[in-house]
UniProtKB/TrEMBL annotation:
Keywords: ATP-binding, Kinase, Membrane, Nucleotide-binding, Serine/threonine-protein kinase, Transferase, Transmembrane, Transmembrane helix. The lineage of its organism: Eukaryota, Metazoa, Ecdysozoa, Nematoda, Chromadorea. The keyword Membrane applies. This is Protein kinase domain-containing protein. The keyword Transmembrane applies. It comes from the Eukaryota. GO terms for biological process: intracellular signal transduction; microtubule cytoskeleton organization. It comes from Ascaris lumbricoides. One of its GO terms (molecular function) is tau-protein kinase activity. Gene3D superfamilies: Transferase(Phosphotransferase) domain 1. Coiled coil: none annotated.
Length: 120
């Protein structure tokens, strides 16, 4: 569970839950998992994992071809300091997300799902 929990919730010195900033951090973890198939801070030792989070050490697997745009978005969403973390209005405007949504709309127009039935 700690793998999806924002640093501020695990760090004993931090303030209580602050809503969106914590949710954005968790969404950054989910995005990382979706594009890589791995956890961003995977370590069997929770203290080492927390240290990686606090030091903002994020690596991306070399076997995956990821755009610099998505790497930057994830990096900014996973910033350990909530005030420096990417905010929702900026996330929905980021070039990776906008370009991905645009490509998906184009692909939908070019190749709609088949409605043919093979049972006819």
């Amino acid at each position: 569970m700690q793998k999806f929990v924002a640093v501020k919730l695990v760090d004993k010195r931090s303030r209580p839950y602050r809503g969106f900033a914590v949710d954005i951090w968790s969404a950054g973890v989910v995005l990382y998992v979706m594009v890589t198939g791995l956890m961003p801070y995977d370590d069997r030792y929770p203290k080492k994992m927390l240290l990686k989070q606090l030091q903002h050490r994020i690596t991306f697997p070399s076997k995956r071809t990821l755009s610099d745009e998505v790497k930057r978005l994830i990096f900014e969403m996973l910033h350990p300091v909530p005030s420096k973390r990417k905010q929702y209005p900026d996330i929905i405007k980021c070039s990776w997300l906008v370009n991905t949504a645009y490509r998906m709309r184009i692909e939908e127009r070019l190749s709609p799902p088949s409605t043919d039935s093979s049972d006819d």
